[in-house]
Write a structure and sequence with these properties.
With 235 residues, this protein is an alpha+beta fold. 29% of the residues lie in helices and 30% in strands. It has one domain. Strand 7 and strand 8 form a beta hairpin. It is globular, with a radius of gyration of 24 Å.
């Protein structure tokens, strides 16, 4: 009776390596296909004002855009990043998105894993002026003196806000005019950071913060609450 032949160890290793290579190749192909599809979809959304508006509404969890604002850009990378930019300028005749005008809004949402949430809240609650959080998302803030801060309690979230004089510079839509910036933290009680920046003109650049008339500006608590009323990212 002949002995059964055993499968050589090197063959098992070879099969394992081949399987790993095929799995990696499939993953790369699938990721590339997904990226191409997302790029095509993103291009279509950017070119079409209606599609831009639909995407912006989805990212912001909004029933409608704030009155007088138009979508500049909006996109999502599932589980990683949501971004939307609004402007008070309308699209041009061809439907191309506008730049940020005198007033605008930038919203970004991303996972907060591994970050010090206490430091973030210290900034929004006025205990710190150190805010470097958005640089890695290609949003550079040039913050000057702090104007005011507060909290808006809503049914599905609390919104912490702090306002400064300054400007915002993004790789996608350029630099805003110097003015007032209201930085907003949407507290949904989960493991994501949701940050908004509402920007508008400074009614008196020479006035001190104590002298500044804030009524109707992006540093006015009532104006902030009214602006945010359709924006509900925690839904």
């Amino acid at each position: 009776m002949s002995e059964g032949k055993t499968f050589p160890a090197w063959a098992w290793v070879g099969c394992g390596c081949l399987g790993a290579i095929l799995a990696i190749a499939f993953f790369v192909f699938a990721a590339g296909f997904w990226a191409v599809q997302k790029a095509r979809q993103f291009g279509e959304e950017i070119a079409d004002p209606d599609e831009r508006a639909k995407k912006a509404l989805a990212v912001l969890g909004a029933s409608e855009l704030p009155d007088g604002y138009h979508p500049v850009i909006a996109f999502s990378v599932p589980m990683l990043l949501d971004l939307s930019v609004l402007s008070d300028l309308p699209p041009d005749e061809s439907g191309r998105p506008p730049e940020i005008g005198e007033r605008g809004f930038v919203y970004v949402s991303y996972p907060a894993f591994g970050q010090n949430q206490r430091e973030l809240r210290d900034f929004f609650e006025g205990r710190s002026d150190d805010f470097d959080e958005l640089g890695r998302h290609r949003l550079d803030l040039d913050l000057e003196e702090r104007i005011a801060n507060g909290r808006i309690a809503r049914e599905e979230d609390d919104v912490l806000w702090v306002s400064h004089r300054g400007a915002i510079d993004t790789d996608d839509v350029g630099k805003s005019q110097e003015g007032l910036l209201a930085l907003l933290l949407f507290d949904c009680g989960d493991s994501r950071n949701r940050i908004g920046i509402w920007l508008g003109p400074d009614p008196d650049p020479d006035a001190t913060p104590a002298e500044l008339e804030l009524s109707g500006t992006v540093s006015d608590p009532e104006a902030i609450e009214s602006f945010l009323s359709p924006i509900r990212p925690c839904r």
